[in-house]
Amino acid sequence: MLEVSGLTRRFGDMVAVDDVSFPVPSGGLTGFVGGNGAGKTTTMRMIMGVLAAHAGTVSWQGHAVTRADRRRFGYMPEERGLYPKQPILDQLVYLARLRGMSAADARREITVLLERFGLGGRTKDPLEKLSLGNQQRVQIIAALVPAPAALVLDEPFSGLDPDAIDAMADLLREHARDGVPVVFSSHQLDLVDRLCDRLVVMARGRVVAQGTGEELRADASLRYRLVLGGDAGWVRDVPGLHVRDVSGPEAEVEVLAEGAEQKLLAEATSRGSVLDFHRVVPRLSEIYREVTA
Ligand SMILES: Nc1ncnc2c1ncn2[C@@H]1O[C@H](COP(=O)(O)OP(=O)(O)OP(=O)(O)O)[C@@H](O)[C@H]1O
User: Taking every annotated instance into account, which residue ranges of this chain make up the domain ABC transporter (predicted)?
Assistant: First the structure.
Protein backbone atom coordinates (compact mmCIF):
# COMPACT_ATOMS: atom_id res chain seq x y z
CA MET A 1 0.00 0.00 0.00
CA LEU A 2 1.04 3.55 -0.74
CA GLU A 3 0.02 6.05 1.90
CA VAL A 4 0.35 9.79 2.39
CA SER A 5 0.07 11.26 5.81
CA GLY A 6 -0.07 14.92 6.80
CA LEU A 7 1.46 16.12 3.52
CA THR A 8 1.81 19.90 3.45
CA ARG A 9 3.32 22.24 0.88
CA ARG A 10 3.41 26.02 0.78
CA PHE A 11 4.30 28.36 -2.10
CA GLY A 12 5.21 31.66 -0.43
CA ASP A 13 2.34 32.45 1.94
CA MET A 14 -0.12 30.21 0.14
CA VAL A 15 -0.72 26.72 1.51
CA ALA A 16 -1.26 24.65 -1.65
CA VAL A 17 -1.53 21.29 0.17
CA ASP A 18 -2.59 21.33 3.79
CA ASP A 19 -2.21 18.25 6.01
CA VAL A 20 -3.37 15.78 3.36
CA SER A 21 -3.67 12.10 4.32
CA PHE A 22 -5.08 9.17 2.39
CA PRO A 23 -4.22 5.56 1.55
CA VAL A 24 -3.85 4.13 -1.94
CA PRO A 25 -4.57 0.46 -1.24
CA SER A 26 -2.90 -2.27 -3.28
CA GLY A 27 -5.11 -3.88 -5.84
CA GLY A 28 -7.49 -0.94 -6.17
CA LEU A 29 -8.05 2.19 -8.21
CA THR A 30 -8.10 5.42 -6.22
CA GLY A 31 -9.54 8.48 -7.96
CA PHE A 32 -8.24 11.85 -6.96
CA VAL A 33 -10.72 14.60 -7.75
CA GLY A 34 -10.93 18.33 -7.10
CA GLY A 35 -11.35 21.60 -8.98
CA ASN A 36 -8.58 23.59 -10.63
CA GLY A 37 -5.93 24.55 -8.11
CA ALA A 38 -7.22 22.16 -5.41
CA GLY A 39 -3.72 20.73 -4.89
CA LYS A 40 -3.82 17.37 -6.72
CA THR A 41 -0.75 17.87 -8.91
CA THR A 42 1.26 19.25 -5.99
CA THR A 43 0.31 16.20 -3.90
CA MET A 44 1.29 13.78 -6.68
CA ARG A 45 4.60 15.57 -7.15
CA MET A 46 5.31 15.12 -3.45
CA ILE A 47 4.38 11.43 -3.66
CA MET A 48 6.93 11.05 -6.44
CA GLY A 49 9.55 13.18 -4.69
CA VAL A 50 9.86 15.69 -7.53
CA LEU A 51 8.70 18.36 -5.09
CA ALA A 52 9.73 18.47 -1.43
CA ALA A 53 7.06 18.36 1.26
CA HIS A 54 7.18 20.94 4.06
CA ALA A 55 5.56 18.42 6.41
CA GLY A 56 4.17 14.91 6.29
CA THR A 57 5.31 11.57 4.98
CA VAL A 58 4.83 9.21 2.05
CA SER A 59 5.06 5.55 2.97
CA TRP A 60 5.37 2.46 0.82
CA GLN A 61 4.63 -1.02 2.18
CA GLY A 62 4.79 0.39 5.73
CA HIS A 63 8.13 2.22 5.53
CA ALA A 64 9.16 5.72 4.46
CA VAL A 65 9.36 5.64 0.68
CA THR A 66 12.90 5.59 -0.71
CA ARG A 67 14.36 6.80 -3.98
CA ALA A 68 14.73 3.16 -5.07
CA ASP A 69 11.02 2.53 -4.34
CA ARG A 70 10.05 5.57 -6.37
CA ARG A 71 12.10 4.40 -9.36
CA ARG A 72 9.77 1.42 -9.51
CA PHE A 73 6.65 3.63 -9.56
CA GLY A 74 5.08 4.51 -12.89
CA TYR A 75 4.45 8.25 -13.03
CA MET A 76 2.60 10.31 -15.58
CA PRO A 77 3.37 13.93 -14.71
CA GLU A 78 1.10 16.84 -15.60
CA GLU A 79 3.84 18.35 -17.75
CA ARG A 80 4.12 14.97 -19.59
CA GLY A 81 7.81 15.24 -20.53
CA LEU A 82 8.40 13.17 -23.66
CA TYR A 83 10.40 14.61 -26.53
CA PRO A 84 8.27 15.87 -29.44
CA LYS A 85 10.86 15.20 -32.13
CA GLN A 86 12.02 11.70 -31.20
CA PRO A 87 10.49 8.50 -32.66
CA ILE A 88 8.09 7.11 -30.08
CA LEU A 89 9.47 3.57 -29.82
CA ASP A 90 13.05 4.82 -29.40
CA GLN A 91 12.21 7.19 -26.59
CA LEU A 92 9.97 4.74 -24.76
CA VAL A 93 12.75 2.13 -24.89
CA TYR A 94 15.24 4.73 -23.68
CA LEU A 95 13.04 5.62 -20.68
CA ALA A 96 12.45 1.96 -19.78
CA ARG A 97 16.23 1.35 -19.89
CA LEU A 98 16.77 4.26 -17.50
CA ARG A 99 14.49 2.39 -15.13
CA GLY A 100 16.57 -0.76 -15.34
CA MET A 101 15.06 -2.76 -18.20
CA SER A 102 17.07 -4.48 -20.95
CA ALA A 103 16.64 -2.99 -24.43
CA ALA A 104 15.21 -6.26 -25.82
CA ASP A 105 12.61 -6.65 -23.05
CA ALA A 106 11.65 -2.99 -23.26
CA ARG A 107 11.23 -3.15 -27.04
CA ARG A 108 9.06 -6.26 -26.77
CA GLU A 109 6.75 -4.96 -24.02
CA ILE A 110 6.42 -1.50 -25.52
CA THR A 111 5.61 -2.92 -28.95
CA VAL A 112 2.79 -5.00 -27.42
CA LEU A 113 1.35 -1.92 -25.67
CA LEU A 114 1.66 0.28 -28.76
CA GLU A 115 -0.23 -2.33 -30.74
CA ARG A 116 -2.87 -2.60 -28.05
CA PHE A 117 -3.42 1.15 -28.28
CA GLY A 118 -3.62 1.03 -32.07
CA LEU A 119 -0.20 2.59 -32.58
CA GLY A 120 1.64 -0.47 -33.90
CA GLY A 121 2.18 1.21 -37.27
CA ARG A 122 3.48 4.47 -35.81
CA THR A 123 6.54 3.27 -33.90
CA LYS A 124 9.00 5.30 -36.01
CA ASP A 125 6.94 8.51 -35.99
CA PRO A 126 8.12 11.40 -33.85
CA LEU A 127 5.71 12.12 -31.00
CA GLU A 128 4.69 15.50 -32.46
CA LYS A 129 3.24 13.86 -35.59
CA LEU A 130 0.63 12.03 -33.50
CA SER A 131 -2.76 13.47 -32.58
CA LEU A 132 -3.04 14.76 -29.00
CA GLY A 133 -5.02 11.70 -27.91
CA ASN A 134 -2.39 9.38 -29.37
CA GLN A 135 0.39 11.39 -27.73
CA GLN A 136 -1.47 10.87 -24.48
CA ARG A 137 -1.48 7.09 -25.05
CA VAL A 138 2.28 7.16 -25.57
CA GLN A 139 2.71 9.11 -22.32
CA ILE A 140 0.69 6.47 -20.51
CA ILE A 141 2.80 3.65 -21.95
CA ALA A 142 5.89 5.45 -20.61
CA ALA A 143 4.46 5.04 -17.09
CA LEU A 144 3.59 1.36 -17.60
CA VAL A 145 6.97 -0.04 -18.69
CA PRO A 146 8.71 -1.64 -16.86
CA ALA A 147 5.78 -3.14 -14.93
CA PRO A 148 5.28 -0.56 -12.15
CA ALA A 149 5.10 -1.32 -8.41
CA ALA A 150 2.62 1.59 -8.06
CA LEU A 151 1.02 3.98 -10.54
CA VAL A 152 0.66 7.72 -9.98
CA LEU A 153 -1.06 9.31 -12.95
CA ASP A 154 -1.93 13.00 -13.34
CA GLU A 155 -5.01 13.33 -15.56
CA PRO A 156 -4.33 10.20 -17.65
CA PHE A 157 -7.79 10.30 -19.26
CA SER A 158 -7.82 13.91 -20.42
CA GLY A 159 -8.03 14.21 -24.18
CA LEU A 160 -8.89 10.54 -24.78
CA ASP A 161 -11.90 9.49 -26.85
CA PRO A 162 -14.39 6.99 -25.33
CA ASP A 163 -12.71 3.93 -26.92
CA ALA A 164 -9.29 4.99 -25.65
CA ILE A 165 -10.79 5.66 -22.20
CA ASP A 166 -12.13 2.10 -22.11
CA ALA A 167 -8.81 0.62 -23.29
CA MET A 168 -6.94 2.69 -20.72
CA ALA A 169 -9.39 1.78 -17.93
CA ASP A 170 -8.97 -1.94 -18.77
CA LEU A 171 -5.22 -1.57 -18.59
CA LEU A 172 -5.33 0.17 -15.20
CA ARG A 173 -7.71 -2.47 -13.85
CA GLU A 174 -5.32 -5.21 -14.99
CA HIS A 175 -2.51 -3.57 -13.04
CA ALA A 176 -4.77 -3.14 -10.01
CA ARG A 177 -5.77 -6.81 -10.22
CA ASP A 178 -2.08 -7.70 -10.12
CA GLY A 179 -1.89 -5.93 -6.76
CA VAL A 180 -0.59 -2.54 -7.91
CA PRO A 181 -1.89 0.52 -6.03
CA VAL A 182 -3.14 2.98 -8.65
CA VAL A 183 -3.98 6.63 -8.02
CA PHE A 184 -5.03 8.99 -10.79
CA SER A 185 -6.43 12.48 -10.88
CA SER A 186 -9.36 13.43 -13.04
CA HIS A 187 -11.98 16.10 -13.59
CA GLN A 188 -14.35 13.54 -15.12
CA LEU A 189 -16.49 12.70 -12.09
CA ASP A 190 -18.72 10.13 -13.74
CA LEU A 191 -15.68 8.29 -15.03
CA VAL A 192 -14.09 8.30 -11.59
CA ASP A 193 -17.34 7.07 -10.05
CA ARG A 194 -17.55 4.25 -12.61
CA LEU A 195 -13.92 3.15 -12.36
CA CYS A 196 -12.68 3.70 -8.86
CA ASP A 197 -12.77 1.61 -5.72
CA ARG A 198 -12.01 4.67 -3.62
CA LEU A 199 -12.22 8.40 -4.08
CA VAL A 200 -10.30 11.23 -2.50
CA VAL A 201 -11.89 14.66 -2.95
CA MET A 202 -9.73 17.77 -2.50
CA ALA A 203 -10.74 21.41 -2.21
CA ARG A 204 -8.52 24.38 -1.38
CA GLY A 205 -5.58 22.17 -0.46
CA ARG A 206 -7.44 19.87 1.92
CA VAL A 207 -9.10 16.48 1.67
CA VAL A 208 -12.81 17.21 2.13
CA ALA A 209 -14.14 13.68 1.60
CA GLN A 210 -12.77 10.20 0.98
CA GLY A 211 -13.99 6.64 0.86
CA THR A 212 -15.78 4.29 -1.52
CA GLY A 213 -18.56 5.72 -3.69
CA GLU A 214 -21.06 3.99 -1.41
CA GLU A 215 -19.53 5.53 1.71
CA LEU A 216 -19.63 8.99 0.18
CA ARG A 217 -23.27 8.49 -0.81
CA ALA A 218 -24.14 7.25 2.69
CA ASP A 219 -22.51 10.36 4.21
CA ALA A 220 -24.30 12.71 1.85
CA SER A 221 -27.38 14.58 3.05
CA LEU A 222 -30.56 12.54 3.35
CA ARG A 223 -32.97 13.56 0.60
CA TYR A 224 -36.51 12.56 -0.32
CA ARG A 225 -38.72 13.13 -3.30
CA LEU A 226 -42.46 13.48 -2.85
CA VAL A 227 -45.17 13.47 -5.51
CA LEU A 228 -48.71 14.36 -4.38
CA GLY A 229 -52.18 14.33 -5.87
CA GLY A 230 -52.38 18.11 -5.24
CA ASP A 231 -50.08 21.11 -4.84
CA ALA A 232 -46.94 20.55 -2.71
CA GLY A 233 -46.34 24.22 -1.75
CA TRP A 234 -47.19 23.55 1.94
CA VAL A 235 -44.00 21.45 2.25
CA ARG A 236 -42.10 24.72 2.82
CA ASP A 237 -43.79 25.04 6.24
CA VAL A 238 -42.75 21.60 7.54
CA PRO A 239 -40.06 22.07 10.23
CA GLY A 240 -36.74 20.19 10.07
CA LEU A 241 -36.52 20.18 6.26
CA HIS A 242 -34.67 22.18 3.65
CA VAL A 243 -36.74 22.36 0.49
CA ARG A 244 -34.43 21.94 -2.50
CA ASP A 245 -37.17 22.18 -5.10
CA VAL A 246 -40.97 22.50 -5.30
CA SER A 247 -42.83 22.44 -8.55
CA GLY A 248 -46.63 21.87 -8.64
CA PRO A 249 -47.30 18.48 -7.00
CA GLU A 250 -43.61 17.52 -6.70
CA ALA A 251 -41.05 18.41 -4.04
CA GLU A 252 -37.51 17.41 -3.16
CA VAL A 253 -36.37 17.97 0.40
CA GLU A 254 -33.26 17.52 2.49
CA VAL A 255 -33.71 16.22 6.03
CA LEU A 256 -32.14 18.53 8.65
CA ALA A 257 -33.77 17.12 11.81
CA GLU A 258 -33.99 13.39 12.49
CA GLY A 259 -37.40 11.96 11.63
CA ALA A 260 -38.60 15.08 9.77
CA GLU A 261 -39.25 12.96 6.65
CA GLN A 262 -41.71 10.80 8.62
CA LYS A 263 -43.60 13.93 9.74
CA LEU A 264 -43.62 15.08 6.13
CA LEU A 265 -45.08 11.78 4.96
CA ALA A 266 -47.73 11.76 7.75
CA GLU A 267 -48.74 15.33 6.86
CA ALA A 268 -48.89 14.46 3.16
CA THR A 269 -51.16 11.43 3.69
CA SER A 270 -53.44 13.42 6.00
CA ARG A 271 -53.85 16.06 3.27
CA GLY A 272 -54.65 13.71 0.36
CA SER A 273 -53.10 11.17 -1.94
CA VAL A 274 -49.34 10.49 -2.08
CA LEU A 275 -48.30 9.19 -5.49
CA ASP A 276 -44.62 8.70 -4.72
CA PHE A 277 -42.25 9.07 -1.79
CA HIS A 278 -38.69 7.80 -2.05
CA ARG A 279 -35.16 8.45 -0.93
CA VAL A 280 -33.02 10.18 -3.53
CA VAL A 281 -29.50 8.78 -3.92
CA PRO A 282 -27.32 11.68 -5.04
CA ARG A 283 -25.00 11.39 -8.02
CA LEU A 284 -21.30 11.76 -7.38
CA SER A 285 -21.31 15.13 -9.14
CA GLU A 286 -23.90 16.40 -6.61
CA ILE A 287 -21.91 15.05 -3.66
CA TYR A 288 -18.83 16.67 -5.13
CA ARG A 289 -20.58 20.04 -5.30
CA GLU A 290 -21.73 19.66 -1.69
CA VAL A 291 -18.34 18.75 -0.22
CA THR A 292 -16.35 21.30 -2.21
CA ALA A 293 -18.81 24.21 -1.76
N1 LIG B 1 5.47 25.91 -8.53
C2 LIG B 1 4.47 26.63 -8.01
N3 LIG B 1 4.67 27.89 -7.59
C4 LIG B 1 3.67 28.62 -7.05
N5 LIG B 1 2.39 28.17 -6.90
C6 LIG B 1 2.13 26.93 -7.31
C7 LIG B 1 3.15 26.08 -7.88
N8 LIG B 1 2.59 24.88 -8.18
C9 LIG B 1 1.29 24.96 -7.81
N10 LIG B 1 1.01 26.18 -7.28
C11 LIG B 1 -0.27 26.63 -6.77
O12 LIG B 1 -0.72 25.64 -5.84
C13 LIG B 1 -2.13 25.46 -5.93
C14 LIG B 1 -2.44 24.00 -6.22
O15 LIG B 1 -2.06 23.72 -7.55
P16 LIG B 1 -2.14 22.25 -8.19
O17 LIG B 1 -1.53 22.35 -9.55
O18 LIG B 1 -1.55 21.28 -7.24
O19 LIG B 1 -3.70 22.02 -8.26
P20 LIG B 1 -4.53 20.91 -9.08
O21 LIG B 1 -5.56 20.39 -8.15
O22 LIG B 1 -3.61 19.93 -9.70
O23 LIG B 1 -5.22 21.79 -10.20
P24 LIG B 1 -5.61 21.43 -11.75
O25 LIG B 1 -6.78 20.52 -11.68
O26 LIG B 1 -5.94 22.78 -12.30
O27 LIG B 1 -4.39 20.82 -12.39
C28 LIG B 1 -2.61 26.41 -7.03
O29 LIG B 1 -3.08 27.61 -6.42
C30 LIG B 1 -1.35 26.68 -7.84
O31 LIG B 1 -1.40 27.95 -8.44
Answer: 2-229
Which ipTM did the prediction report?
0.96
CATH of residue 234: 3.30.70.250
Cβ of 77 below 6 Å from ligand 1: no
pLDDT digits (tens, 9 = 90+) for 176-200: 999 999 999 998 888 888 889 999 9
Instruction: Determine the structural domain holding residue 23 and report its residue range.
Output: 2-210
Ligand 1 centroid to residue 41 C-alpha, Å: 7
Residue 37 Cα to ligand 1 middle (Å): 5
Q: Does 122 share its domain with 255?
A: no
Distance 242 CA to ligand 1 centre (A): 36
Q: Is 34 in the pocket of ligand 1 (CB under 6 A)?
A: yes
E strands in the chain: 2-11, 14-24, 29-34, 55-60, 63-64, 73-76, 150-153, 182-185, 198-203, 206-211, 223-228, 241-247, 250-255, 274-280
